[in-house]
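User: Quick one: structure for sequence A, then sequence B.

Assistant: Sequence A:
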Amino acid sequence: MSARLMAIGRLGLRSRAYRRHVYQKIAALTLGAAFVSPAGQRLRQAVVRFGTPARHPDVRTAVVAHVYYLDLLPEILACWATLPDGAPLHLTVPNERIEQARHLLGGISGAILHPCENRGRDIAPFIALLNAGAFDPYDAVLKLHTKRSPHLRDGEVRRKLLFTMLAGGRNATLRLLAAFEEPGTGLIGWKASYRAAPSYWMANEARVRTIVRQMGMSDDAVRLGFFEGSMFWFRPAALARLRHLQLRPEDFEPEERQLDATLHHAIERCFTISAWADGFSVRGLDGRILK
């Protein structure tokens, strides 16, 4: 049993959060697996062919992805292909794998490699690019990573579901990007991966409160509501508070296959707090505001 499920389970079988977690596990292993299967993909593509093409919104966009598992790079490239032509792809790759990644890309135009230390999972390399201003030219950026979660039975399905929901087709991506024409839109993610129940603090609440104070806010600004897995669309300006921290890679713990209670787990819960602090909204894929 995962540490997260054990923590939720302490609330009891009648806990609403526990029941929702179990239902989502079952759905991911059944309906979710069918949805992301080759047959499900062919069905979705057939439906799209009969749909009305979406308009191209006036939004500058890009993808940033952390690639630890290089065999999953094709899945990242497939997501990138749903963005408007000319959108760049920023790839953070551990130093020891950068040459292999360069070979696999084969000089693909628009893909930019950023070597990094294998520390802080996808979060530390992302923060490094944020601090360096790599995302400043864009209105909307899709954040992905090659999440494998070997400790979870449904890890593969969950990743594929997230990729499919966030960037499963050109029309869907264009419609989603239209929401960023509204300047108040800060983050957009899949509602099924959004966690707001208190049990999802896990062992991170105290550290999040410390980070919030470092961002110049009071404890009143602390709210739980985050996209589990740290994959979502974001407006770079909405993460200004996190950028203000100027975190360095060495601030993150060395990689020891931790499942909780690290700086990167705390930062995962701070993306939305940063957005809310400056008046940006956090939305689901349907455009509805998440609280």
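Sequence B:
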Amino acid sequence: MQNFFFGLFCFILIFILVDLFENLDRFIDKKLTVFQIAQFYSYFIPDILKLITPVGMLLASLFTISRFINFSEFTAMRSAGISIYRYLVPVMTFGLIITLFSIYFNGWLVPKSNRLKYSFERTVLGRHPVVNIIPNIYIQDKFNRIIVIGAYDKIGQKCSDVSIQIFNKDTLNTVSSRFDIKEMTWDSSKADWRIKEAYKRSFLSQNRESLEILNNIYIADVPEIKKITVDPELILKKDFKPEELPLTEFKEFIENLEASGQDASKEKVDYYSIISFPFASLVTIIFGVSVSSNRRKGGAALHFGISIMVSFLYLGFVKISQVFGYNGDMNPIFTAWLANIIFLSISIINFLRTQKT
């Protein structure tokens, strides 16, 4: 455990120093104080932890096994008839605890820190400047209702060019009515939208439709709608990047994309990767134990170098496989777990092979 946290500390320090040297000119230009710089990196650390936790687990297993070897403890264990599998139980248990915690950490805590980091970059560093108008918003309001908002004004809390399409509840493949709203404004006192001007089209049959004009009316007063789940808070969430959304909200974001007919392959891969990536800690533990417990010419230094190389190969393979998932060439779930499957197979084969030597 001590080796694991020491490895994390070292990697965090390296990441921060590299990023600091890269952005030092920008910090000086913006006249940031030491406190502001420390604040920025406090938001950055969770994202670093998300990436390096599997590498930290690998280093921990390497250092622990190397220490066992240096003090001939493995030799003593084998002489006493104690299998290495017995040693693996507490190590894998610790790895499983870290994995389960990482799913929660990556899925809920990291998005919150990312939101703070991006807000800091927008307001203090001038990156990704704040835009007061959010264009092209698609929302699945109910199972048979889709809302399309042409533009939303954050300051005035106004929606313009709004289309509410209500589908037939039985077939869901035909539109029963449609509301084309020129503008609607949020009334916080009533927690409802006030429609300034709208056209209601009811499709009675294949060749017949009726037209009705609505003015200065609240959504609650429209019988066909009565209430929509859309409010300013929900719309603002649509403006967040996927990495700013907790896992549950990210799933809702994907469902809304699919309901509006958009391709969500990239978002699905990212969603399932948040769940699959923490399991890399268990994979690296098995690989680290198998490499370190096999004494060859070159000793621990060679094993250490090979294992670090494998870690970066793993991360590289994850990024490459994600490209195929983003393009829709592979199933999103399979894409997210492919690196774990391949490297776990390699790790198990290598582990079993070393036990025969």
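The chain is about 60% helix and 20% strand. The chain has two domains: 2-126+269-356, 134-259.

User: Thanks, that's what I needed.
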